[in-house]
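User: Run a structure prediction on this.
Assistant: Running it now.
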Amino acid sequence: MTSRTKKIFLIFTIVVPFLLYCFYYYGMMIKNAPYRYSDFQSISIKYGPKDSLINQFSSKTGDYQYLNKRDSLVKVHIRLTDDDLLYLHHKAADLGFWDFPANERGDTTSADKPTRYVIEFKYKTKTKKVTFDSNFAGDPKLIDANKQLIKEIDQSLTTAENRLKK
């Protein structure tokens, strides 16, 4: 066998089956991913002092209510675009939201009232709901990821509300 024939033989016996297996394996993983945007239905967020989650948004209904700087309740009907929802879905995936623990509650005996966030992503077959307190004393990376996701959701809501005002 010549050197060239040996290389061709190695490519067909090792490299080609390996590539075929990779395409099959990762194709099945992507196809069976638990949280796909094609199955996405809605996102909702509720936040406020832990005894009253007065600030709420649901993308299913479009209802958004929040307390403004003057402590008056503002109710607005806004719709997030598909691009906004896709962005939030990808941001949640990038931050590892699907791996967050469902309960991230902080110290309940403290005198100050921490802000509680309840974030929920609904899909056709699954729902991921996370309860996060601002005084949660867990892994700093997890706390930062939660705060980043909350910031992104709030920014999307602010952008959608500004589009409504124009």
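The mean pLDDT is 86.
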